[in-house]
Structures are given as structure tokens and as C-alpha cells.
Specification:
alpha+beta, 36% helix, globular
Amino acid sequence: MKLRRDDIIAPADYARAREEHRARIREVKRHRRVEVGPFITFFFENRQTMWHQVHEMLHIEKGGEEQIVDELDAYNPLVPEGRDLRSTMMIEIDDPIRRNTVLRRLGWIDETVSFRVGDRSIPAEPIQDTERNTPDGKTSSIHFLVFRFDDETVAMFRDPGVRVALEVAHEHYGHQAILPPQTRESLAGDFS
């Protein structure tokens, strides 16, 4: 279920309990992070992570009521809708020169990401708030993705006997990560 205005608590109330909220969300996020290859990390979002993100933005920017609407519009697309998983994919390279060189080789990498659930492939669909690839082939270091599952694939995802992997099959970046049980359990909670 998407976040609504009445889900947002008063900034002063959030500030008073901010450290508790941050500790709680660290625990939620612990099993929702998947590294694929040497420098791509997927952060699987849910209603809790987005609630926290909205409150953090309000706490930092202090934009008042008008900002609340903007933050809900920005972060609600990353809240799963019952038969999907939603992720922030980050290409993390500290050195700016190397990062620029690598990003210029990874155009449209967001279109090469998929889950492998047993013998099935669930391709990522970019959530496009803006185009993240340039005509000359450079990609952004941040992408937002949705993976849409059907009922049978959800059942397979929940079955510990079925192998589940997240893969990137770009011609310049081909890597795969098998999801550990704790991550699968956490992500399966997004299916309703």
C-alpha cells in the first residue's frame, strides 16, 4: 500500500525518536541489500524503507507541508504493490575518473537486469522518473527498477528448494548473485 499523508508524523515527533527509527530501519535494510559483481548494489525498497526516507528528507530539508506532497510523489513509486519487488540499483565507484569511464561503457545496463527463479527469468523494468541513459551510451549511477512476478513465480521464490539469483547481463558487466535465505525471506514479505 502506498504511503499517504496521514502516514507522515509531525517533524518534531520524528526528530525526538529519530535514532530509534534509524536503528529499526537499519535492521529492516540488513537483508534487503544485494551486491552483484564488484560495484553494483541493489537496495530493495518497501513501505518501511520509503516511510523512513520520506521522514529523513523532511527532517533534513524542513520544507513543510508542500514538501510532504513532493516526497510522497518521489518515493511512492518504490513501494511494492503486492506482486512485485522494487529496487534502487547503485553503481558505486569512489574514484570519479574511473566512475565516469565505467558509466560511459554501461549504457542501458538497467535493461539487462533480471531475477532468475528456477528456470524463469523476471526482467527488470526501469521506473523512469527521468531518462537515465544518454544517447552517447553513458548511464546514471542510480537506477530505479521494478520486477513483476506472477503467482506461480512468487510461490517458486518462496520455495527454499528453488534457486533464486539476481543477475546483470550487460556486455561490459556480467555478474550474478544467489540470494541467501534471509534476503529471500525479507523480500518475500513484499508479496501479498
